[in-house]
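sry for the spam today, last one i promise. struct tokens for design, 225 residues
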């Protein structure tokens, strides 16, 4: 039995068919962390929930809480991140961000900081004046900080360039609104990438399909340049 309708602010991270006409969605919500909800009839053409049950949809979701899952009855979407849907590389990065957030998100915990980070990071992917790789590594570092798994002593590692240590310090401590307000030369970005790839591999015990697609794409590009 449901316990009444509630409003949750969040974003669709994953979606899958359920039954003949429904969709099962995984939401990252500010109020209750990661939840699973079923959208009845969302696969029927013209259903009001069709557009609200695709990845990247951000807004207010009205749900009924059941014993094992939620039922989504309506949604007001304020951002679909349309810019990512016409940019293959940006969409791949966005999908990876969703997977990485899904890894750290937990049920029944306030996820305001994580949701804010995800939203701002996706907005940055839509911009053309910031490198996607820089957005990616800043997102990874900050999400691991929120997850309590990032090794803070990297900022004191003198085997790294001073600029790399300063960049890591910024990614760890800057307010989310200013997280991407820095640029680094290619040499520094490459060192950040190598170290962060090592850190992620050490602390995160999951392979991410979208990241494998990105790696394959960049290897293919490099082979033709």
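last one done:
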């Amino acid at each position: 039995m449901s316990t009444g309708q509630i409003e949750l602010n969040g974003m669709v991270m994953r979606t899958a068919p359920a039954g003949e006409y429904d969709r099962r969605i995984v939401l990252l919500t500010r109020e209750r962390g990661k939840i699973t909800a079923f959208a009845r009839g969302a696969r029927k053409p013209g259903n009001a929930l069709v557009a609200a049950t695709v990845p990247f949809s951000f807004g207010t979701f009205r749900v009924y809480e059941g014993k094992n899952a939620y039922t989504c009855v309506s949604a007001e979407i304020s951002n679909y991140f349309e810019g990512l849907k016409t940019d293959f590389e940006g969409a791949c990065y966005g999908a990876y961000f969703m997977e990485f957030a899904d890894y750290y998100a937990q049920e029944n915990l306030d996820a305001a900081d994580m949701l804010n980070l995800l939203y701002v990071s996706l907005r940055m992917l839509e911009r053309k004046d910031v490198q996607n790789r820089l957005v990616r590594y800043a997102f990874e570092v900050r999400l691991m900080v929120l997850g309590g798994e990032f090794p803070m002593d990297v900022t004191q590692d003198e085997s790294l360039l001073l600029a790399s240590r300063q960049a890591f310090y910024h990614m760890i401590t800057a307010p989310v609104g200013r997280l991407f307000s820095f640029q680094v030369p290619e040499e520094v970005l490459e060192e950040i990438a190598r170290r962060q790839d090592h850190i992620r591999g050490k602390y995160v015990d999951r392979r991410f399909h979208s990241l494998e697609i990105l790696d394959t794409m960049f290897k293919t590009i490099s082979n033709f340049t």
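Residues 33 and 109 are 5 Å apart (CA to CA). ok im logging off now
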